[in-house]
Design brief:
binds magnesium ion, two-stranded antiparallel ribbon, six-stranded parallel beta sheet, 194 residues, 22% strand, alpha/beta, binds adenosine-5'-diphosphate
Length: 194
């Protein structure tokens, strides 16, 4: 049996990751693939049971595909992937076990498209993304526009005064995309990581 491929779209907030997932899903449907689309249960921005881009585009409304919400410690089990050809994962950084499970899905011939934040707002590699990026057949690094200067934004800036937890679900009230210069120079150190 032909093995699947893993494609990863990574970047800061507002870079077009969810939009890219929708594009890949549309192509898969055009090619008569049977998809499973998942998102973390904790992501309730815009909608509980749908994936909606920051532009307000709904994955379910555009494609008719139902979005499965999973607790972050879960991965799609055998029943859920029975009969599917392609797995689409939004906010992939939040699923800590997905990096290990990927090999099994690929061996089963399932194509995987994973999109997520490559770094958290402290500039640290985020959750399962380093593993997914390492295992990917193809990686697309997306960028947004810096909210300060309009230049290419590769980082996600968390506005001052909000909680410091690594996982804090939020939108424009909490985060904005920034270039390295306008992100947080305070966070940049040449000392070895502790
Ligand atoms: P991601 O999934 O990477 O966070 P989406 O695909 O949901 O991004 O949305 C990307 C779109 O968000 C861009 O094409 C742009 O139209 C819009 N966008 C860009 N910057 C902002 C912003 N600061 N606030 C709200 N929407 C934005
Ligand atoms: Mg998104």
């Amino acid at each position: 049996m032909k093995t699947g491929t893993l494609r990863v779209y990574a970047g800061p907030m507002y870079a077009g990751k969810t939009t890219s997932l929708l594009g890949e899903l549309t192509i898969a449907l055009d090619n008569d693939k049977r998809p499973l689309v998942i998102k973390p249960l904790i992501d309730n921005r815009y909608s509980d049971d749908d994936i909606v881009s920051h532009d307000g585009v709904s994955v379910n409304r555009v494609t008719g595909v139902k979005v499965l919400r999973l607790p972050v410690n879960d991965i799609p089990d055998l029943d859920q992937i029975e009969g599917i050809d392609a797995l689409f994962i939004d906010e992939a950084q939040f699923f800590p076990n997905i990096g290990n499970a990927i090999d099994a899905y690929l061996e089963m011939g399932i194509d995987v498209v994973a999109v997520g934040l490559d770094m958290d707002s402290n500039g640290k590699p985020f959750g399962s993304m380093p593993v997914l990026l390492a295992k990917a057949n193809r990686v697309v690094k997306l960028s947004a526009n810096c909210s300060v200067c309009g230049d290419v934004a590769t980082r996600t800036y968390r506005k001052p005064g909000v909680a410091k937890d690594q996982v804090l679900i939020g939108g424009a009230e909490t985060y904005e995309p920034r270039c390295l210069e306008h992100w947080s120079p305070r966070n940049i150190s040449i000392a070895p990581a502790a």
